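Lab notebook page, bench 4
Experiment: in silico fold of construct C2
Operator: M.H.
Input chain length: 368 residues
Purpose: comparison with the prior construct
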Amino acid sequence: MDDARVERATWLWLAAALGPAAPNSGMVLSMFPQVRELPRACREEDLSLIFTPAQLGVLRETRPEDYIARLDDCERQRVGVLTWADEDYPALLRAVSAPPPVLYYRGDASLTNRSFLFAIVGTRRPSAYGVEATAAIAGELARAGVVLVSGLATGLDSESHKAAVQAGTPTVACIAFGHDRCYPASNRALKEIIERQGLVLSEYPPGTPPLKPHFLQRNRLIAGLSRGLCVAEARRRSGTMNTVSAALSAGRDVFSVPGSIFSPLCEGTNQLLRDGAIPAVSGADILLWYGLSGGTEETEPERSAPGEPELSPDARRMRDALSAAAPQTLEALCAKTDLAPSKAMAALTELEIAGLSRQLAGRQFQLK
């Protein structure tokens, strides 16, 4: 069997033994930067000070060759495998205390090391203010060439990705499941666009479902990949604040968008400002902080030539059901179009990315 292929399988073997977000991964990788040495060490050396008993159990009960099938499965599903030893492994992520030994990806793996990456995150149920603020800040950064990183969740994560797509700038989505899944299902169309226009990363192999612990584990990837992080709107206790903790642990800059003192959705962002976060009221604030071009004046987005965008049949049906005058709920639109909620949301996402519709507070939608 090809030695390079066995070595890649050995990385998968190590990643499976460590498990996601293993706090000892940094120590293991420093001890075994050449993973090919690990199988011999497992047979001949006492590794109990490096690995936990459960991790040692996996290493001793399985072999690297057992993971050749996973490599084959990834190839069939067009999922790339990026290991700690690969040149395209994200340099910023490599520097955190507990980096994943393996990342699974679709898209352009070289993107993370040749671009300026910055994360924008926020609540899954934003206010109209949060949506507008995120779209404005993310759009300005994307038009300046900043590659935005977020988590492909509903709410402000999606708004950040959509702003990048609309600006024609690559974006990086960190997901908490295998590449053959999508959660929420309504973001499938957006995920496929990011795979073509940017990069989708996961530390979970194909077939992994979107379990709750995975989302908290995923947050450290968002923070670790990025030079800094901006919180657009968040409650004081939330997954977003977990991402902030990961960013602070990794020594990243934290920005916060000021919000209403009367809104529970702004308690987290306002607390961050009290704790010393950098205020961000525009994309220019962030660009100027890093000395990036585009921070001194607003940049107008490029306008595509007029014409009808190519839409899927579901998106055309949804466009015909929408109105510019009166916002409509998702339930009402599902009834009008006879589309299941997941398909309806995918169609609405497609229309929003095409610049034909917008989402308002309370999951209401209308034509632009």
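Observations: The first helix runs from residue 3 to 18. The CA atoms of residues 287 and 295 lie 5 Å apart.
Next step: discuss at group meeting.
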